[in-house]
Write a structure and sequence with these properties.
The complex is a heterodimer.
Chain A (H helix, E strand, L loop, with lengths): L3 E12 L7 H15 L5 H4 L2 E5 L2 H4 L19 E4 L3 H13 L5 E8 L7 H6 L17 H14 L3 H15 L13 H6 L2 E3 L2 E2 L8 E10 H7 L4 E9 L14 H14 L4 H4 L2 E3 L5 H10 L8 H6 L17 H4 L6 H13 L13 E7 L7 E7 L1
Parallel strand pairs in A: 2-3, 2-4, 9-10
Antiparallel strand pairs in A: 1-7, 1-8, 4-7, 5-6, 8-11, 10-11
Chain B lengths: L12 H6 L16 H12 L3 E5 L6 E2 L15 E5 L2 E12 L5 E13 L13 E7 L3 H5 L7 E6 L12 E6 L3
Parallel strand pairs in B: 6-8
Antiparallel strand pairs in B: 1-2, 1-3, 4-5, 4-7, 5-6, 7-8
Classes of the chains: A alpha/beta, B alpha+beta.
């Protein structure tokens, strides 16, 4: 079966605010860079379809789909919007190419959380309107803290372990050009932080940033013409748990586990711990990253805590996780966060990760999640 | 074959109201950056100018302006000033509000094809602006007399302008 590849990526932002640019202009700048990276393609001539991943309440515009084409060069061409993380768009591009309806598909996602004044209201608005929203919890992060508590107890993880993960990730982010929250933190500093919702402190919860990311996905035939460094998408999988938060599995991230199984089956991954050179995972919460590492099969339930303490997931460990930092250092540009993980993996696999470059980067797993209160997870397997 | 529903007892209004519901409304507040192109456009309105960007590839003038041409995907850097006059392309009268209340005064809404000195456009792609139309009657619209009528922007007094599309009160018909 012919393969499918990432042939170009571009981004703008990863800043705390972006008052000088409209979301259109941010996406346009990211698109120009992505098309240039993809061998200088012209979207008007060369691209078959465009997909945008966005969500109306983040945009502040209903039916925001209509605002997707212009800045991508997609006017009067097949365009649609997926209400999901940017990686869901990549999965859709993958399906369009695999099914033969397109040879080159452009994927876009962006987030300008700095423009959302009533952020916690919007976040809370995503909970069930009948039996959760009227509870008006003082802090929505409580929903994840509840899960963190169960997960930590079941895996023998202590606060110091979350601290270890946070220190490692913020330190990795110091090697990145797009991490406004990168920091050199020590354990004492971590432990001194006040709780937001016990057991999570401000260090355990990723902040927001503004960014736009564009990716070009192509069939094998086209990819080989456009670049001598295609990054192959060997598998994609996704899954969502029951919507009733109080009835979900909290010990285990089942949705990620199932998404990984789907992607691994396609990519013929048998032993994820040995086969991958690194992983890019969603770390909107410190504990959530550890939970994802386990659900992706990169650590065993009974040894995930000791693997973390041994430094297995550090840059010099057996399986580096977020080697150039993740959400904690970069901030979360809403639905574009999954594409931020993809971008980091893409740069590593092409040997263009700069100071964050790993010596051995041939195969990677990329994981995405839709954030607070959600269970939608997505997994990609990439190789060079 | 259609499905027919017979019998049963219809709910009375008060019974319908007695059903348990949660009533909530989104608290959604945003502060949206106008960006490079719209900022310059809005600054222009404050001075009583309508500005657009010119695409040398397709020769279209974009109003409101963009820093790229959506049709050609070319970077646009040439700014042009449009006239505040143009012609009515289409117009309608609104009698009811969106919530179906009768409007005290029916409002005429239209699309105006703006003149840009030194530029010519095709009849289907041109700098068009959506706005209120004044100085016309319902009858002018109903009889379609308003189509192709010349209009000119009626600006707010300079000290009242804020850099908003509402710095133009409406486009007023100049009956020839």
């Amino acid at each position: 079966m012919p393969k499918i590849a990432l042939v170009g990526m571009g981004y703008t932002g990863f800043t705390r605010s972006s008052e000088h640019l409209s979301f259109r202009e941010m996406v346009y700048q990211a698109a120009v860079k992505a098309y240039n990276d993809a061998g200088g393609i012209d979207p008007r001539r060369d691209v078959d379809a465009f997909i945008s991943c966005q969500e109306d309440f983040w945009e502040g515009v209903s039916i925001s789909d209509e605002f997707a084409p212009d800045q991508l060069g997609g006017v009067l061409k097949p365009v649609y919007t997926v209400t999901g993380d940017g990686l869901h768009c990549v999965a859709n591009a993958y399906m369009m190419i695999r099914s033969g309806v397109a040879d080159i598909v452009v994927v876009e996602s962006h987030g300008k959380p700095s423009e959302i004044i009533s952020m916690s209201d919007i976040v809370w608005f995503s909970t069930d309107p009948i039996y959760v929203r009227p509870l008006k919890l003082p802090n929505p992060h409580a929903l994840q803290a509840l899960e963190a508590r169960v997960y930590m107890r079941s895996r023998g993880l202590r606060r110091e372990d979350l601290g270890l993960y946070v220190i490692q990730s913020l330190g990795n982010a110091l090697l990145s050009d797009r991490a406004p929250y990168a920091a050199k933190l020590d354990l004492d500093g971590y432990l001194e932080a006040e709780y937001v919702v016990d057991p999570l402190t401000a260090y355990d919860i990723a902040r927001y940033s503004d960014a736009a990311i564009v990716a070009v996905v192509a069939s094998e035939e086209i990819a080989r013409k456009l670049t001598d460094q295609p990054v192959w998408i060997d598998g994609v999988g996704w899954a969502t748990e029951i919507s009733t938060i109080s009835m979900r599995s909290m010990e285990e991230d089942v949705a990620t586990k199932l998404a990984a199984r789907m992607a691994y089956d396609q990519a013929n991954v048998k032993d994820p711990r040995r086969e991958f050179d690194f992983a890019e995972v969603d770390e909107r919460y410190s504990y959530k990253a550890i939970q994802a590492i386990e659900a992706l099969g990169l650590a065993r339930i009974d040894t995930v805590a000791s693997d973390l303490r041994d430094g297995s997931f550090s840059r010099s460990g057996s399986l580096p996780v977020n080697p150039s930092g993740g959400a904690l250092g970069e901030g979360v540009p809403l639905e574009a966060h999954g594409l931020a993980r993809l971008l980091s993996a893409y740069e590593q696999l092409r040997g263009r990760a700069g100071r964050a470059q790993l010596s051995d980067a041939e195969k990677a797993v990329v994981h995405g999640w839709r954030g607070l209160g959600t269970s939608s997870s997505i997994v990609l397997v990439l190789s060079r | 074959m259609g499905v027919s529903i017979r019998g049963g007892t219809p709910l009375r209004d008060e019974e319908f109201r007695a059903v348990i519901k949660e009533i909530d409304s989104p608290r959604a507040r945003y502060s949206m950056a106008a960006g490079i192109a719209y900022s310059r456009f809005l600054e222009g309105l404050k001075r009583g100018e309508i500005l657009g960007t010119y695409c040398p590839s397709c020769r279209l003038v974009h109003i409101p302006p963009k820093i790229y041409c959506p049709y050609c995907f070319k970077h646009l850097t040439r700014w042009v000033r449009a006239s505040d006059e143009g012609r009515v392309v289409t117009a309608v009268v609104s009698y009811l509000s969106a919530t179906l209340e009768t409007l005290e005064k029916p409002e005429i809404i239209g699309i105006i094809r703006l003149d840009v000195p030194g530029h010519r456009f095709s009849s289907y792609r041109f700098p068009g602006i959506l706005h209120r139309i004044c100085g016309a009657s319902e009858d002018d619209v109903k009889t379609q007399r308003i189509f192709d009528a010349r209009v000119k922007a009626r600006w707010l007094p300079e000290d009242k302008r804020t850099g908003s599309i509402n710095d133009i009160e409406c486009f007023e018909v100049i009956w020839g």
